[in-house]
Amino acid sequence: VQLVESGGGLVQPGGSLRLSCAASGYTFSRYGMSWYRQVPGKERELVASIFSTGGNTNTAEGRFTISRDNAKNTVYLQMNSLKPEDTAVYYCYCMINNINYWGQGTQVTVSA
Question: How far apart are CA 36 and CA 88, in angstroms?
């Protein structure tokens, strides 16, 4: 199982970013996916989740939207109206057979 995030970077407050997570090594369409984020000194927190079919999503931030393309084995996180407090490393996550899998993370920095 491999999860590879991309799309992070430096953005000004009020800007937007779309993160991508490319999954491989398993049947992507069978499992839910999530995005987490972490800042130094704090625990990793759940940002958004999506079911395997994409029909149900939960998002902690109303400014963010999670989606997936099962044909591309990719999950996305669209982040709008970004704030400095959104600065963090963002991780892609899935659980398969009670085993946790994480990507390497992508840094998002919101700063003027």
Answer: 10
Q: Is 45 exposed, middle or buried (0-12, 13-18, 19+ CB in 10 A)?
A: exposed
> In this structure, are residues 19 and 79 in contact, taking their beta carbons and an 8 Å threshold?
yes
CA dist., res. 63 & res. 81, Å (int): 6
Structure confidence at residue 57 (pLDDT): 81
| Element (DSSP H or E) covering residue 17 | strand 17-24
Alpha carbon 11 to chain centroid, angstroms: 17
Give 45-51 contacts, CB < 8 A, sequence gap 24+.
47/77, 47/90, 48/77, 50/75
pLDDT in tens, the chain (112 residues): 999 999 999 999 999 999 999 999 999 999 999 999 999 999 999 999 999 988 778 787 889 999 999 999 999 999 999 999 999 999 999 999 999 999 999 999 999 9
Residue at token pair 């946790």: 100
